[in-house]
Amino acid sequence: MNKVFNGMLILFLMLSSVFCVQANEIVIKGSTTVLPIAQAAAEKYMQIHPEVKISVSGGGSGNGIKALIDQSTDIADSSRFLKDSEIRMAMEKNILPVPHRIALDSVVPVVHPENILTDITIDQLKGIYTGQIKNWKEIGGKDMVITVVSRDTSSGTYEIWESKVLNKERVTPKAQTLASNGAVAQAVASNPYAIGYVGIGYINKDLKALTVNGIEATIASAISGVFPVSRPLFMFTSGWPEGETAAFLTYVVSPEGQKVVQAEGYVPLYILK
Questions:
Q1: What was the pLDDT predicted at 21?
Q2: Residue 153 · residue 196 · CB < 8 Å
Q3: 102-121 in b/e burial notation, b at 16+ Cβ within 10 A?
Q4: pTM of the model
Q5: What does R_g of the chain's alpha carbons equal in angstroms?
Q6: CATH fold for domain 2-104+233-263
Q7: Mean pLDDT, range 237-251, rounded to an integer
Q8: Which distant-in-sequence residues (6+ apart) come within 8 Å of 216 by Cβ?
Q9: pLDDT (tens digit, 9 = 90+) per residue, 158-189?
Q10: What separation in angstroms does the CA of 55 have from each of 35, 62, 73, 97?
Q11: What's the rounded Cα separation, in Å, for the pair 63 and 31?
């Protein structure tokens, strides 16, 4: 009898240990725009709470939302809101995606530093990305054929570009389609003829950010919504979060978490002191 009891006790302790480990693990997948925020916030949070393990990966907003619906992630990073089709898929699986706005962002057109342009209009961007404008000289630049760099259609960054720049028209089939903000930034930085678009946090010394309709992408223009291609950034959970997931999300929107957002080059939800 004692052997049976001891065996059951050992099994109970083992299972309890497994459940505790699982309870202290958070899986985050999705948007490459939100990825730097999620990675930096996760690192800071684990420093404060060393008992918690957070794994973070990209893949795009669409893939993150799909993972949430498939229950293979605790948090889905997304640079856009859910599509109607995603909401229907979630409802079919009894999943209730809950949005948590964690930062603001501007999607900024970028060119190689050698490009002489400094400003571009929405109409000119649309012309370039639909293939109607093919040479930089058509909009005041040098006589160079434009290399168009865009994002894949599963990207939330592409979704906002399609909505606010292309007005739902198709990108030229000659465009290079890349899977991440980082890949776009690298492609433009290495090609004097290229134009691309990235989240504000990906702008660096190897890129020239263009003003749009004369408006610069800044914290103030993103918060006010004056910059023509501004948007909120989200973390989605299945239902209202609990436990460590809830605690992590609370940290992200706290003043300390928003300092991480700002340090990564993004726009906090509110003015920080």
A1: 41
A2: no
A3: bbbbbbbbbbbeebebeebe
A4: 0.79
A5: 22
A6: D-Maltodextrin-Binding Protein; domain 2 (3.40.190)
A7: 97
A8: 209, 227
A9: 999 999 999 989 999 999 999 999 999 999 99
A10: 11, 18, 10, 20
A11: 8
Q: What is the mean pLDDT of the chain?
A: 91
CATH 3.40.190.10 domain residues, the chain: 2-104+233-263, 105-224
Higher pLDDT, 6 or 108: 108
- Residue 17 is predicted with a pLDDT of 43
Backbone dihedral region for residue 223 (phi beyond 0: left; psi -120 to 50: alpha; all else: beta): alpha
Please give the Cα distance from 187 to 92 (Å, whole number): 40
The arithmetic mean of pLDDT across residues 68-96, rounded, is 96
Confidence of residue 120 (pLDDT cuts 50, 70, 90): very high
For residue 242, the one-letter residue type is E
- The whole-angstrom distance between residue 40's C-alpha and the CA centroid of its chain comes to 13
C-alpha 152/C-alpha 155 separation (Å) is: 6
| Strand partners for 235 | 77, 100
CATH 3.40.630.10 fits 105-224, yes or no: no
Rounded (10°) angle between helices 35-48 and 243-253: 110
Most confident of 20-24, 32-36, 154-158, 249-253: 249-253
Here the tokens at position 11 are 């099994």
Helices (H), the chain: 2-23, 35-48, 61-69, 84-92, 122-130, 156-164, 181-189, 219-224, 243-253, 255-263
CB within 8 A of 3, min separation 6: which ones?
Answer: none
Please report which confidence band the pLDDT of residue 2 belongs to, taking 50, 70 and 90 as the band edges.
low
Q: Extract the tokens encoding 214.
A: 């004369």
